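Lab notebook, design round three. We kept the backbone fixed and only want residue identities now. Task for the bench partner: fill in a sequence for the structure below.
Input C-alpha cells:
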C-alpha cells in the first residue's frame, strides 16, 4: 500500500487491508489534521480493500467531519463501488460523480 499527495488530495494505491491499516490511518489522519477544505482520496490505483481498510476510510470520514472537513472519494473502482453499495456506505460517504447503482453488476 502506498499513499502520495498532500493534505488536500491523496492517491491511495495497492492493498488497503489489515496489514497496511495502521500506516494508512496515520498518514490519512495527519492529512486531515494538517489541511482545510475537502480531502480528496483518489482510489484509482487501489487494488483492493478489506473490512479493516473500509474501517480506516470510515474513521477518516468521521475525523474529517470533526475537523470541519469533508472526505471525498474519487475514481472508486467498480469492485469497491459494489461493496459501498452493499454496505450502504455510498449513502454516507461523499463520492465524486456518485455511484450509478443501476449500472453496477449484481452480486
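Proposed sequence:
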Amino acid at each position: 500500500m502506498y499513499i502520495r499527495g498532500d493534505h488536500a488530495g491523496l492517491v491511495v494505491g495497492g492493498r488497503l487491508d489489515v496489514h497496511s491499516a495502521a500506516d494508512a490511518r496515520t498518514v490519512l489522519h495527519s492529512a486531515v489534521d494538517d489541511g482545510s477544505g475537502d480531502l480528496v482520496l483518489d482510489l484509482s490505483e487501489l487494488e483492493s480493500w478489506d473490512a479493516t481498510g473500509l474501517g480506516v476510510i470510515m474513521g477518516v470520514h468521521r475525523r474529517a467531519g470533526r475537523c470541519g472537513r469533508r472526505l471525498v472519494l474519487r475514481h472508486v473502482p467498480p469492485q469497491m463501488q459494489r461493496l459501498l453499495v452493499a454496505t450502504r456506505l455510498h449513502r454516507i460517504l461523499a463520492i465524486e460523480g456518485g455511484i450509478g447503482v443501476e449500472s453496477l453488476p449484481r452480486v
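Keep this in mind before ordering anything: The first helix runs from residue 21 to 34.
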